[in-house]
Amino acid sequence: MMYDDYDYWRNVVPPGAPDENDKALFKSLIKGDTVLLLGSTKILLDLATDAYDLCPKWDDPKIQDRDWLSVDTHYDTIIGCGPFNFTKELTEALFPILKRNCNRLILRTFYNPQWKLKYAKHFPEPSEFYPIPTVYADNGHHRFFVWDFIDG
What we know:
With 152 residues, this protein is an alpha/beta fold.
């Protein structure tokens, strides 16, 4: 199953995983003090106050073994690397939950790549969402979608 493929998730390298430039962009876009990371992307863990991941891939006390669809706590910012790239169905179920539970949402999203992303099946466009996100750092293989749901 995708969630417990520890070897894959622990060994993803850029551009499939974020690099230091991506981390710096995440950091510059985060607003507020409470930050939820969707997943347990190692390079991003120190930016988060909490992380939700089914079958956590690292031993870190901030990672909770929780489904993203169970987000029920409000965060200033929610971040993630590729959560909307798994399936269209997951994206459609997850987006309204995240909208309700954060002021700002920052997601790294992939185009349909020339290189292999083992679990990515959905490559969303900004126009698929309401509200439409602001797009940052579009480099041809990934970009950042940013939504502000509450000014502050």
